[in-house]
Structure to design on (136 residues):
């Protein structure tokens, strides 16, 4: 029985693929923030690894947004397809924040204050896109 028949999302569909990437981005971002905020034990090597992982993930979901809306189950607003230029601008902004985070991890010992600012910038970039383009 397919997931669609059960009301689920096909994991091989564009929606399924981008949803999986966004969930993984959230998990990695929460680990990074958790380390800096004391919820998770800080591990510099793991932080660096997770920052690179987040940067890699941040480049992936955009290819799974077709040029026209393809699924009514999406939590994306119609504006994603109607305002493609703005959506792509915010996607590039997120990619820039994750690249700056990685750049801040290249010179040990790492400065946790700088890392906290970089992680906050990533979180802010995610939030700004969600405010404009996500239907909650």
């Amino acid at each position: 029985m397919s997931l669609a028949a059960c009301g689920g999302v096909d994991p091989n569909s564009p929606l399924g693929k981008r949803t999986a990437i966004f969930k993984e981005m959230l998990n990695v971002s929460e680990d990074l923030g958790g380390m800096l905020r004391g919820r998770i034990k800080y591990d510099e090597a793991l932080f660096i690894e997770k920052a690179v992982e987040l940067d890699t993930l941040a480049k992936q979901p955009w290819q799974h947004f077709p040029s026209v809306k393809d699924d009514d189950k999406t939590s994306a607003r119609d504006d994603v397809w109607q305002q493609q230029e703005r959506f792509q601008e915010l996607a590039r902004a997120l990619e820039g924040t994750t690249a700056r985070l990685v750049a801040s991890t290249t010179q040990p010992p790492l400065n946790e204050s700088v890392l906290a600012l970089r992680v906050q910038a990533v979180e802010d970039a995610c939030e700004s896109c969600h405010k404009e383009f996500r239907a909650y």
The chain is about 60% helix and 0% strand. The first helix runs from residue 14 to 37. The helical segments are 14-37, 44-58, 79-82, 84-103, 112-133.
